[in-house]
UniProtKB/TrEMBL annotation:
Reactions mediated catalytically: 3-demethylubiquinone-10 + NADH + 2 H(+) = 3-demethylubiquinol-10 + NAD(+); 3-demethylubiquinone-10 + NADPH + 2 H(+) = 3-demethylubiquinol-10 + NADP(+); a 3-demethylubiquinone + NADH + 2 H(+) = a 3-demethylubiquinol + NAD(+); a 3-demethylubiquinone + NADPH + 2 H(+) = a 3-demethylubiquinol + NADP(+)
The keyword Nucleotide-binding appears for this protein: yes
Protein name (database record): NAD(P)H oxidoreductase RTN4IP1, mitochondrial
Membrane found in the keyword field: yes
Family per similarity comment: Belongs to the zinc-containing alcohol dehydrogenase family. Quinone oxidoreductase subfamily.
Cellular component aspect of the GO annotation: mitochondrial matrix; mitochondrial outer membrane
Lineage, opening ranks: Eukaryota, Metazoa, Chordata, Craniata, Vertebrata
GO biological process terms, semicolon-separated: nervous system development; ubiquinone biosynthetic process
Superkingdom as given in the UniProt entry: Eukaryota
Pathway: Cofactor biosynthesis; ubiquinone biosynthesis
Compartments where located: Mitochondrion matrix; Mitochondrion outer membrane
GO molecular function, one term: nucleotide binding
Enoyl reductase (ER) domain span: 51-392
SUPFAM superfamilies: GroES-like (SSF50129), NAD(P)-binding Rossmann-fold domains (SSF51735)
């Protein structure tokens, strides 16, 4: 049965791909063009080994993705974005854990995870649906964040599970929409899944965000303000205008004086979201309300580092011991200590899309690169000090 499904999907997909290439060549010109005539390959940026930026390679002959499972869809990528995780994955960070969960069909065919396509965010058009997909149809405009154990979005087409996909907000272009899924879902996982916040309980909560001017920070700020929280952000003076525009209630410029002294002048917080880690963790935990259900969540965890360095079993054990000791230590002080991890979720993107279309969240796009300049986009991310997202236009808008 699975063989029949796959053959049917390949046949139908080939025709759709041929029409897509014709449409692209007719008027949606890109700096890099797909291979003519042949409908079993596509262009993509790949890596064949881990390393610095020179391992990124443009390949016009990447095998066209096909539907292997009935709940999958094929998306024609109009835009993607570069996140710090893409740079880290290019370097090999997390490979030990991620390779355990990669699609065994790809690994078996290729012999390893390579050639590996990076990129997590996508905004584009549904080209093909698996037989079990009920909520999408070819032609739907969608957005998604593809999990890091799957082939990514720096390509003309990508396969995603339907439960990872959502209809794109109508108020956004593909370029704008591609900037949001990964960072908003990371913020959602930390605030909702780890800290238990939601729109019904958020009004009046005092939330402190470290590293607020990056992608996750700007997304978290807007999500919290849409839900009625009081948001204090920590950023540099250069980002104050941006954070004011996003609705932050209180801005702490860490460059103007000791952060500890500035935090002492504020009331205690119900939740801290830490995008920085290091010394900010110890500092932040001093300014939470004790014995009130207050939560601290960090997105800077040693889990992948431990598994890379120690192996899966020992790395998981070390991470579990570290997390468990911190949970107990801070629970004794009346504080909930949590780690946060990106979690793909189409239903969460449905809710986020409603917030966007209601005008309560907007994309923060710092720079847009054409598909031909993916390596330059990586260099920008590596330089740090982001003021929003870096987007790749795979298909140029009309």
């Amino acid at each position: 049965m699975m063989s029949m499904v796959c053959n049917r999907c390949v046949s139908r997909t080939a025709g759709l791909y041929r029409r897509a290439v014709i449409a692209i060549k007719a008027g949606k010109g890109r700096a890099i063009h797909g291979s003519p005539v042949r409908n079993t390959i596509m262009p993509a940026w790949v890596i064949d080994k881990y390393g610095s930026n020179d391992v990124l390679r443009f390949n016009e002959n990447v095998l066209f993705p096909i539907i292997h499972y009935p709940n999958e869809v094929i998306i024609q990528v109009h835009a993607a974005s570069v996140n710090p995780i893409d740079v880290n994955m290019r370097n090999g960070y997390g490979s030990a854990s991620l390779n355990m969960t990669r699609d065994p069909l790809h690994v078996k065919t290729a012999g390893s995870e390579f050639p590996l396509i990076l990129g997590r965010d996508v905004s584009g058009i549904v080209m093909e649906c698996g037989l079990a997909v009920q909520y999408f149809k070819p032609g739907d405009q969608v957005w998604a964040a593809v999990p890091p154990w799957k082939q990514g979005t720096f390509a003309e087409f990508v396969v995603a599970s339907a439960n990872e996909v959502s209809l794109k907000p109508k108020s956004l272009s593909h370029t704008e929409a591609a900037s949001l899924p990964y960072v908003t879902l990371t913020a959602w996982a930390a605030l909702v899944n780890s800290c238990g916040l939601k729109k019904e309980t958020c009004p009046g909560k005092r939330v402190l965000i470290f590293g607020a001017s990056g992608g996750v920070g700007t997304a978290a700020t807007q999500l919290l303000k849409a839900w009625g929280a009081h948001v204090t952000v920590v950023c540099s003076g250069e980002a104050q205008t941006l954070m004011n525009d996003l609705g932050a209630d209180d801005i702490i410029d860490y460059t103007t004086g000791r952060l500890q002294d500035q935090l002492k002048t504020r009331d205690l917080f119900d939740v801290v979201l830490d995008n920085v880690g290091g010394t900010s963790e110890e500092l932040a935990l001093q300014y939470l309300k004790p014995w009130s259900g207050a939560s601290y969540c960090t997105l800077v965890t040693p889990f992948l580092y431990n598994t890379d360095r120690l192996g899966i079993a020992d790395g998981m054990m070390r991470s579990g011991i570290t997390l468990g000791s911190k949970v107990v230590k801070h629970l004794c002080k009346g504080i909930h200590y949590r780690w946060g991890f990106f979690t793909p979720s189409g239903p969460a993107l449905d809710e986020i899309g409603e917030i966007v279309d209601a005008g309560k969240m907007r994309p923060v796009v710092e720079k847009v690169f054409p598909f031909s300049d993916v390596p330059q986009a990586f260099e920008k991310i590596e330089a740090g000090h982001a003021r929003g997202k870096t987007v790749i236009e795979v298909i140029n808008p009309r």
